[in-house]
Predict the structure.
Amino acid sequence: MSTPLKTKIQVPRSRDLEVNGVKYNRSGASRSNFEMLAWLFMRLSGIVLVVLVFGHLFVNLMVGDGVHAIDFGFVGGKWANPFWQVWDLVMLWLAMLHGTNGIRTIIDDYAERSGTRFWLKVLLFLSSGFVIFLGTLVIFTFDPCPASADPELLASFCPAA
């Protein structure tokens, strides 16, 4: 029988981790529960997103004429109802925050240097914030019945049509 090899494996994310000549400069352990709360958020938001996305798909693809009914008028009529505005807003916010948190975790796991991690996270948070802001703006300022439009071009649910 051969004796098993004994190797010392460094603890991942330890302060002095060095692999193949690359030093990982990780900060010390956090005293907050941020990572635990982020983990919990991912699980809960995932469950809520499944309900929101399948509800969205069912209403858009199965009810009425299905996919053939989706056009400008369909979206305008849907967003004329505050229920669907809130539904789509919650879906947008949860999807963006869920995805951003997932990418943040990937950056923490795979970016080797602190500076790289910092700038990747800055770009991630700025782009995520921009998409959330722009999506929220579109949902609440979308007007399918502009006052100056030709009445023949307006959707059937508009008062001037």
Summary: Helices lie at 34-61, 72-79, 82-110, 114-141. The chain has a mean pLDDT of 84. The first helix runs from residue 34 to 61.
